[in-house]
Amino acid sequence: MFNFFGSDDEEDKTEESEQNSAEVEDDILQEEEDERSLFGRLKDGLKKSRRGFVDKLGSIFTGRSAIDEELYEELEETLIRADVGVQTTMDLISELKDYQKEEEIEEPEELYEVFQDRIREILQGGDDILVPWDGLEVLMVVGVNGSGKTTTIAKLANRYKNKGNEVLLAAGDTFRAGAIEQIETWGRRLGIDVISQQEGADAAAVAYDAVQAARSRETDLLIVDTAGRLHTQKNLMQELEKVRRVIGREAGEENVEVLLVLDATTGQNALHQAEKFDEAVDVDGIALTKLDGTASGGIVVAVRNELGLPIRFIGVGEQAADLQNFDPDSFVEALFTEED
Ligand SMILES: Nc1nc2c(ncn2[C@@H]2O[C@H](COP(=O)(O)OP(=O)(O)OP(=O)(O)O)[C@@H](O)[C@H]2O)c(=O)[nH]1
After folding, report:
1. Where does the record place the SRP54-type proteins GTP-binding domain (predicted)?
2. Is the ipTM beyond the 0.90 threshold?
3. Of 151, 255, 278, 319, whose CB has the highest number of CB atoms within 10 Å?
4. What's the rounded Cα separation, in Å, for the pair 103 and 90?
5. Residue ranges per structural domain of the chain
6. Global pTM?
């Protein structure tokens, strides 16, 4: 389980949980104060992609004196291998060729700059997450098992609480044994209340209770956990639709945001998951976790370009500060800047 919040063992002594809480707060304060260290973490987290894919790109553009067909072929192969996706790769190459012709670009290095600018452009949009909001905002968090949902919820709950918001959690995963207890443990550690029912209860009923509780407590942010499910499990997907309907009806559609958590290491499969979840519950944004675990960071480009969904957060490690607001400029800089 997620290191930063300490061990997952419910039997941990209170003293230890208090200490963990204090560490969480320290880390968040540090996070707010030190933008440079955030960038350092981002850079560290993208190390595998830089070595695996960006170094290769660099050698394609800088290792030759002229732009030729071979350059484009190598570029195509490298992008596809890096999970940029076939469609996005084809679009990128054809745009690059057109631009090169129009602007009469001859230097491969100049073309590399154009390429990076285009990636930056594709990644724009998505930084309008959650704040500022008026009244209650409900964040419903969905995704397949093991994508990093619980970790993302804990990191976000902690972050917004430390920014002075009233945060409430809903244990909407009534399906997996131990899931309710897991979210309640996070709640205790972070000093955040959790609305729950017993295992096997109707998840929509939990969501209903949670929205009522959030209203009466003047909560700013309610984060609703949902059962991790495979996008292919039809009845569970229908349950998710019901939870979404109930939240929308009770909290007001305009106050609900659906965040889909995707594991970057699952590559193109993540795109398929996103399509299915979007069909079921209208996803508003993506949290792309475990980017530190892949050498194929191109998945970020594919997610943004092929799904048209904004990337709100990226996970580049297990610590709280490793869940970062997605900023295209910093991302491109961190990805393409050579090691010091
Ligand atoms: N390296 C790395 N690990 C991460 C990141 N985000 C989450 N993890 C790890 O991924 C594992 C799964 O995360 P969980 O949050 O338990 O996943 P989940 O989707 O809630 O899974 P279920 O509880 O089975 O539904 C944990 O070991 C996390 O610590 C990340 O950005 N980088």
Report:
1. 310-323
2. yes
3. 151
4. 20
5. 15-340
6. 0.85
